[in-house]
Predict the 3D structure of the following.
Amino acid sequence: MQQDSRTKKITIALLSIYVIVIFVQSLFFKFTDSVETQYIFRTLDAWGASLGFPGLFAHKGIFSQYVVGTTELIASALLLVGLLSGKSLIRVMGAAVSLGVISGAIFFHLFTPLGVQVLNADGTKDGGELFALACGVWVSSAIILLFHRGFILETLSKFSKRGS
């Protein structure tokens, strides 16, 4: 039983580190307005405009690269603090934020003109690498939440009893 607990802790730590690394390395691209980021958000903004929502993904839009990047930074910080402190609530919050933001990314890859392959700075397509990393973050975040399902259910139960 103790081995299962140790394996679970190591797995959660490795998954958390994976999500943190992917999100933090992407911040450079989002916060420096890289060519790749311009392509992604310009494509999404044109798609939003075609649906009657111009500027949604623009530099000052509600879903701009800066908003998405900041959300990824917050998720990473929560996962890191949860990892270092051992606090389940913080770790769960980080995984939930991570799952939310990456679900949006996967949706936009699959259901908009962005597509699974995006443009690199040199004009080539990335072969779906960014999409694959997003899927890895989604799976990692979901597994972290799955491992904490008892804690989540217990916490939700406490809140529902307070409201009664």
